[in-house]
Amino acid sequence: MNLKSVVTNVVLRVVLNLKNKNFALYKDNSEVLTNVMFIDGSIDDDASLMTHPLENGAVITDHMVFNPHKGSLSVLVEDEDQSSLSEISEYFHNGTLLTIKAKGEIFPNMVISAKPFKVNSNYFNMTQYSLSFCEVQLADTQYLKLTEEQVKEMKNTSTSKIGQKTAVKQL
Predict the structure, then answer these.
(1) Residue 81 contacts residue 35 (beta carbons within 8 Å)
(2) Averaged over 58-75, what is the pLDDT?
(3) What 8-state DSSP symbol labels residue 76?
């Protein structure tokens, strides 16, 4: 590595470190990817409005549905930093739940959905990754086992909330 490359990377670190804590990634309340430099990022926090036409041609909007958060973070990773590269790859392939801190806002349950990279001659021995994230929305499900007696007569069962119930024979 030549002197010009070293000096350029030092200057980039000093300049970019001013923005470094605008973004941070956490896994289980521990900061991860601390050796990468966050350049910039964006988080989509939006909703879909439900609109319906009326008979007279007017359109009404009666409610809104909040969409899962999506975002992207541009990071610089030194080419020799194999631990950060393998960490990014591991989080991507395992669907690891991460938390993004963007300025004062916290976005939990985010997974890396894409990790394209761009080789740029401005950064010499660094690679720029554009990490894309999407929020995972988790649900708790319950399973209720019904006996044959509970669903003996179909007229006593309700299919409006949980689907059709079938009898389970006890052996």
Answers:
(1) yes
(2) 92
(3) E
pLDDT of residue 16: 45
pTM for the model stands at: 0.66
CA–CA separation, 45 and 106 (whole Å):
12
Structure-token pair, residue 19: 């923005």
Q: C-alpha dihedral over 109, 128, 87, 73, to 10 degrees?
A: -10
Burial pattern 98-119, b for ≥16 Cβ within 10 A else e, equals: bbbebeeeebebbbbbebeeee
17 sits in which H/E element: helix 3-17
Q: Are 69 and 42 in contact (CB under 8 A)?
A: no
Q: Are 76 and 15 in contact (CB under 8 A)?
A: no
Model pLDDT, residue 1: 44
Token pair in block for residue 2: 């030549």
What is the Cα–Cα distance from 112 to 116, expressed in whole angstroms?
Answer: 11
Find tokens 């179909």 and name the residue. Answer: 154
Expressed in angstroms, the distance from the first to the final Cα of the chain is 75
Report which residue type is found at 17. Answer: N
Q: How far apart are CA 86 and CA 49, in angstroms?
A: 40
Please tell me whether residue 158 adopts helix, strand or coil conformation: coil
